[in-house]
Amino acid sequence: MFDPLAFTIPEAIDYPNSLVASYLLQTSAQENIFSTVKLILDTQSCGTWVQVSDSTQEIRERHAAKLLALWEVPDFENVPPESVNIHQWIFQVAYPIHNFGFQLPLMLTTAYGEVSAWGNLRLIDLHFPENYVRQFKGPKFGIAGVRELLNVPERPLVLSITKPPLGLTPDESAQQQYLSTLGGADLVKDDELLFSHPWSDFIERVKKHRQAAQRVFDQTGQPTLYFVNITDRPDRLVENAYRAIDAGASGLMVNYLTVGYSSLSMLADDPQINLPILAHLNFSGALYACPRTGVSSHLVLGKIPRLAGADVVVIPSPYGKFPFQVSKYLRVAQALTSQLYQIKPIWPSPGGGVHPGMVPRHIQELGLDFIISAGGAIQGHPMGPTAGARAFRQAIEAVQSGSPFELAAEDFPELKSALETWGSIS
């Protein structure tokens, strides 16, 4: 049972050259935890379920995954009661970086490849050493770069989403942009369902939205970033980006989980694609939502897209339509903004049924470096899209004034109307 190559202690690990993965595992009371973990180690590195002649000691010493920590929850020291028939384990495994190299697809295959199909094993964290992270360029802009593009040094940003998701012509969606940015929206994005359709070609949309942005700039002096959705097959993504840039795009949006993390990094690393990239969260629930399997949300929505080069990541707001835990949402935001070696901090953009009455809570929890993203609460505001965007800006101003939120709202008709319509969670 005891294998000094597979089972060790943290002090014996070459941390600068190892990826440390943390897992949650559920077993029956009868299951031998060391046998189960040993099978995971072998499956994810250099072993298999039967002994093969070419599995030499030299290969194992060079490539074997190592168990460096194992905890049961609760932490039984004595034999647990017979009534405990399900056991919960958290354990950490170190993988040599040379097993997968400086890329994301094989890293994820190594950390959670075949064993992801077991159904009772969840990848809950990844610790990347500096030696690994230094090989990634990360985002070109990040929080500071987007602020510079918009000339907005200090406040949360407001992002307006095209609604309805499908059916609008480029003229119609550009008019929505014009009205919402006239009210103070800083950014506009396509819906994740929208790319290029008979009624709305994405290049034509870029041109019309660029004209709308220019109209608002001429009237207010405020620049706007429009994130056009370029999601497509990976081999067409770069071409789509180039075409959008040639048409005058100011930002790119990609459904990064359906095209893949490495497709996102391909866009971000391209020196000819010098635009901020917004990564949309759709499909993320398929990876993080199950508590017993899948991958924790702060990896899916946080650390990995940041490493891949996103400048903005749309994340679930726990106060809207997503059944998302506040603790998870805060952990995702932390993964996007905390120090990660040389990788720039990037924008969390909480969305999903967000309205102005949620702004105080978001500012309380995230500070000023976030983008509030809203579709229905802007386009469906009782007084129209301009008032809808203005209500968000007024909500931010009301919070920053330091006055009681509902009292401050009395001075803003658009915000007052939004609060009367959707309420407040302040």
List keywords for this structure.
40% helix; alpha/beta; TIM Barrel; five-stranded mixed β-sheet; 2 domains; eight-stranded parallel β-sheet; 426 residues; Alpha-Beta Plaits
Reconstruct the topology from this structure.
Elements (H helix, E strand, L loop, with lengths): L17 E11 L4 H11 L13 H7 L2 E8 L12 E11 L7 H9 L8 E7 L2 H4 L8 H9 L6 E5 L8 H13 L4 E3 L12 H19 L4 E5 L4 H13 L4 E4 L1 H4 L1 H9 L7 E3 L5 H4 L5 E2 L1 H12 L3 E5 L9 H12 L9 E5 L7 H8 L4 E4 L1 H4 L5 H17 L3 H5 L3 H10 L4
Parallel strand pairs: 4-10, 5-6, 5-13, 6-7, 7-8, 8-9, 9-11, 11-12
Antiparallel strand pairs: 1-3, 1-4, 2-3
Helix pairs in contact: 6-7, 6-16, 10-12, 12-13, 16-18
Distance from first to last alpha carbon:
56 Å
Could you please say which CATH topology of the largest domain applies here? TIM Barrel
Major sheet: 8 strands, parallel
How many domains? Answer: 2
Rough outline: globular
- What oligomeric state is this? single chain
CATH superfamily of the largest domain: Ribulose bisphosphate carboxylase, large subunit, C-terminal domain
Number of helices: 18
Helix content: 25-40%
User: What is the averaged pLDDT score?
Assistant: 93
